[in-house]
Amino acid sequence: MKITNVTIAGAGVLGSQVAWQVAQHGFNVTVYDVFAEGLAGGKRNHRQFAELFHSRRGFSQEEVEGTLSRIIYTTDLADAVKDADLISESVPENLDIKKKFYLELAKAAPEKTIFTTNSSTMVPSMYALETGRPEKFLALHFANPVWDANVGEVMMHPGTDSSCFEIVIDFARAIGMVPIPIHKEQSGYILNSLLIPFLTAGQNLFFSDVADCESIDKTWMIATGAKAGPFGILDIVGMETVYNIALMSGKKSNNQQLLDRAHRIKTEWIDKGKMGVSSGEGFYEYPNPKYQDPDFLK
Ligand code: NAD
Known about the structure:
- The chain contains 11 helices and 8 strands.
- The chain is an alpha/beta fold.
- It is 46% helix and 12% strand.
- It has an 8-stranded mixed beta sheet.
- The protein starts with a strand and ends in a 30-residue tail after the last helix.
- The protein has 2 domains: 178 residues, 3-Layer(aba) Sandwich (Rossmann fold), CATH 3.40.50; 97 residues, N-(1-d-carboxylethyl)-l-norvaline Dehydrogenase, domain 2 (Orthogonal Bundle).
- Nicotinamide-adenine-dinucleotide binds next to helix 1, helix 2 and helix 5.
């Protein structure tokens, strides 16, 4: 099956990046968001990406304009999917919203359409039934930012047809991702299954006063050759997410240490506007964080 027309559902942080990446690789893209403000935010992001790719990433004016010209925007679901070969869904990370979206999509989309979800914390079987076509449904998970962290984790659920799995792997490659086939449902895919325990281990050392964050990052970077340690990465992830993960896992496992950590992250970072890279300060100060200084590893 040849993929030509791709619909992106949800024009937020990730949906707008995925739309850009897909259009930049020559596909026709329709961006759908249920809210006019959501769609307007996606359009705004695309104008910023055009500027970024032209001024800092070596793309000509014609190339970025070509990308923009391949994207259309709508808040009408039936219109958005009427000729879609593939849908990449990035609606909010909430099970009820996902289920409701797929129930509506199942009615509106033509039979040929393959559905892919970009959910980070849920697995496809949690809403495969609602899609009405479980055999044509699977996950294609992106990392942020899509173009630099260009892994495309392709994960099937027990009912996914293997031919669809192969089509999505080829599609991921065609849009500049390195496809990562995942044959069995795994919460957190590969990346977050590795990353979250790693980031938690770094925080355990820091919040129990074993060592400061620079020493922890330095150790990791020298010993493994990595470009960043846990605290450089936590600043990229953003303190809001770091806080939410500590709070949610603390509540889930009734772990007071994690709940205390969430409280400290809130009062010592978030309440002071230190949100990570996005606000100019987190564990490090930006735009030139200490861990990127050539002398840091000495
Ligand atoms: P976001 O809140 O930035 O964007 C969600 C968008 O969906 C909004 O524009 C909203 O208006 C729209 N929306 C809400 N309900 C909708 C509906 N019923 N139909 C269509 N659009 C609807 O969220 P995000 O950070 O882009 O995350 C979206 C998905 O991408 C989540 O499943 C998340 O797990 C996944 N994801 C996020 C990241 C990340 O770094 N933010 C990384 C990988 C995957």
